[in-house]
Task: inverse folding
């Protein structure tokens, strides 16, 4: 327990956050690449064809992981938004703003792959249906958080607090997306995977496995992308501080042990 | 082997989706890693200035 508390406090201070996460970037990126390659091969070439949707269902292997990530990342933004707002932790600000680009990207991928799936299955690229509309609102929320931040960028701490406020208000959209297919009549199909099992959704392990592998791959990629951007954020906003100079000096010396400058 | 890649009448939709996914993540990787490298370069330049000033005085 003490170790967890200590780890939490360490991760809250920019210098130790930077030092600890520097070791995570490469492993996360490699895990993401290996799992994506495996997941795509398994899903596109090995998994059996669906009896109703034929080969078009294979879009699920990118669409659903991207959709999960679009909501998961917004959840992280909301939580770090609350921490930013209440405790004014710099690392939370960094995590929040670093999550915005990759989250918005996953949302856009979800919408685009959904359209490409909708055309052959529903006969239309777009419908102003509850699922699609709420996911589009999620994209606007991401853009809103980024926009508010950049409007006050000359004062990063104030910018982060205002962006956090938008992010927290936007949290209300997450359950709307999740339950939209149940609350309203929707042309979108229901969940493909449920924690409780049940008779709905994917039954076949050969179809489920690539989906779960891709879900893991996108998680690892998110960690990579978020940490790289969070480090950039901290270096940028703290560049006048001594720890930034020391951290970069150390990395330089580590890379050229001869001490070439 | 090649028939594994053939999605029949869904070829366009499936492969376009995969392309969207891969291109998006690649773009994110390039932007995240180049920003990361740039800021490090800027801090290094700043370090050199600080050191030069220190050596003078």
Result:
């Amino acid at each position: 327990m003490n170790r967890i508390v200590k780890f939490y406090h360490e991760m809250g201070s920019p210098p130790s956050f930077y030092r600890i996460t520097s070791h995570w970037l490469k492993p996360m990126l490699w895990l993401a690449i290996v799992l994506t390659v495996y997941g795509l091969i398994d899903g596109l070439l090995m998994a059996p064809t669906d009896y109703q949707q034929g080969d078009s269902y294979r879009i699920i292997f990118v669409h659903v992981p991207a959709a999960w990530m679009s909501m998961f990342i917004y959840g992280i933004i909301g939580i770090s938004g609350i921490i930013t707002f209440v405790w004014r932790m710099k690392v939370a600000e960094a995590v929040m703003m670093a999550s915005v680009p990759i989250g918005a990207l996953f949302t856009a991928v979800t919408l685009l792959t959904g359209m490409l799936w909708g055309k052959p299955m529903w006969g239309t690229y777009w419908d102003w249906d509850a699922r699609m509309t709420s996911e589009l609102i999620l994209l606007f929320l991401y853009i809103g958080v980024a926009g508010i931040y950049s409007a006050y960028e000359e004062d990063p701490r104030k910018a982060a607090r205002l962006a956090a406020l938008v992010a927290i208000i936007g949290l209300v959209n997450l359950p709307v997306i999740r339950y939209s297919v149940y609350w309203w009549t929707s042309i979108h199909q229901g969940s493909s995977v449920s924690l409780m099992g049940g008779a709905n959704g994917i039954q076949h392990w050969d179809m489920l496995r690539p989906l779960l592998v891709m879900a893991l791959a996108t998680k690892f990629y998110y960690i990579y992308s978020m940490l790289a951007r969070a480090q950039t954020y901290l270096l940028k906003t703290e560049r006048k501080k001594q720890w930034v100079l020391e951290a970069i000096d150390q990395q330089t010396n580590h890379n050229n042990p001869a001490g070439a400058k | 082997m090649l028939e594994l890649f053939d999605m029949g009448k869904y070829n366009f939709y499936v492969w376009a989706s995969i392309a969207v996914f891969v291109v998006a993540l690649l773009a994110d990787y390039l932007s995240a890693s180049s920003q990361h490298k740039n800021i490090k370069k800027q801090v290094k330049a700043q370090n050199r200035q600080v050191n030069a000033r220190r050596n003078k005085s």
